[in-house]
């Protein structure tokens, strides 16, 4: 298979994953309650669990990810731009295979925290060297 074809397939796979993730995010966002007078506070009905609140550290344009393999799971807050990162897209593909799209809350990815940290650092190094 030619290099062009492989690159196209990788881009296409990434776009498909991105489209599926965006559908999930839209579905989740539609179910969220409206924000109260204080934009950092989300109002919920009394019967909603405490864990359903949007954490204050997840700012607009970001999402939460939990690296769940290995020892203790670790939570990361990532910019939406990571949804275009090929290494992160591979993790999303693995998450889809292991967990499906029925996850609620933070996105769980099947890797060790150190592996996700390396992906983040590699991207920062790449940006700094550009």
Tag the structure with descriptive keywords:
130 residues; three-stranded mixed β-sheet; 3 helices; 3 strands
Summarize the structure.
By secondary structure, the protein is an alpha+beta fold.
Topology:
Layout: H1 3-31, E1 62-67, E2 74-79, H2 86-99, E3 107-109, H3 113-129
Parallel strand pairs: 1-3
Antiparallel strand pairs: 1-2
Helix pairs in contact: 1-2
Trace the largest sheet across and list its strands. 2-1-3
**Care to count the β-strands?**
3
Shape: globular
Q: Strand share of the residues?
A: 5-15%
Description of the molecule:
- Residues 35-51 have low confidence and may be disordered.
- The chain contains three helices and three strands.
- Helix 1 crosses helix 2.
- The chain is an alpha+beta fold and 130 residues long.
- The protein has a three-stranded mixed beta sheet.
- The protein has helices spanning 3-31, 86-99, 113-129, and strands spanning 62-67, 74-79, 107-109.
């Amino acid at each position: 298979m030619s290099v062009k074809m492989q690159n196209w397939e990788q881009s296409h796979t990434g776009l498909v994953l991105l489209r599926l993730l965006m559908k999930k995010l839209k579905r989740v966002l539609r179910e969220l309650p409206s924000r109260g007078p204080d934009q950092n506070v989300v109002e919920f009905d009394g019967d909603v669990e405490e864990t359903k609140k949007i954490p204050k550290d997840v700012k607009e344009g970001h999402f939460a990810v939990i690296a769940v393999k290995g020892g203790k799971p670790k939570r990361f807050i990532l910019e939406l731009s990571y949804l275009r990162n090929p290494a992160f897209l591979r993790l999303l593909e693995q998450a889809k295979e292991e967990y499906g799209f029925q996850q609620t809350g933070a996105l769980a990815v099947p890797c060790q925290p150190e592996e996700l940290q390396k992906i983040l650092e590699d991207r920062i190094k790449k940006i700094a060297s550009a």
